[in-house]
Design goal:
The protein is built from 2 helices and 7 strands; from the N terminus they run H-E-E-E-H-E-E-E-E. The chain is α+β, with helices and mostly antiparallel strands and 130 residues long. A hairpin with a 5-residue loop joins strand 6 and strand 7. The radius of gyration is 15 Å and the shape is elongated. The termini are close together.
Length: 130
């Protein structure tokens, strides 16, 4: 079972919203390129114990979208596209792990600009996986 951030990044790539290693990264955001999508593992809540041995896990991930200094609207639009594409996915299998549900846990948040004046937005997701 892969970590949730790796699986969600694979879904983002499958949806043609980013390319792993080019502008899409997992748990570590590089300084370049300016425009990036980074998926971070961000914890979650306790799993449900089941009698059939198929525990249900509830991890969370944060997706941060960073853009060029002059492209704030485009950066927001990409965050919105990611939110809309992932929110509500269900019964989706990624690398052998079944995701019962992918759900945005809030709206897009503008977190400001980084030290290089690049705009950044985040969107968080709750996951259900077995």
């Amino acid at each position: 079972m892969s970590d949730p951030a790796t699986d969600i990044a694979a879904l983002i790539e499958e949806l043609n919203l980013g390319t792993l290693g080019t502008d899409l990264f997992v748990n570590e955001e590089p300084g370049k390129p300016d425009a990036t999508i980074t998926v971070f593992d961000s914890g979650g809540v306790s799993p449900d114990l089941t009698f059939d041995g198929e525990n249900i896990y509830y991890p969370t991930v944060m997706v941060r979208v960073r853009g060029r200094t002059d492209k704030q609207a485009i950066t927001y639009d990409l965050a919105e596209s990611i939110r809309d594409a992932l929110h509500g996915l269900y019964q989706t299998t990624v690398d052998g792990t079944v995701y019962l549900l992918v759900q945005a846990s809030g709206d897009i948040v503008r977190v400001g600009r980084d030290e290089n004046n690049r705009p950044m937005f985040t969107v968080n997701f709750r996951l259900m996986r077995v």
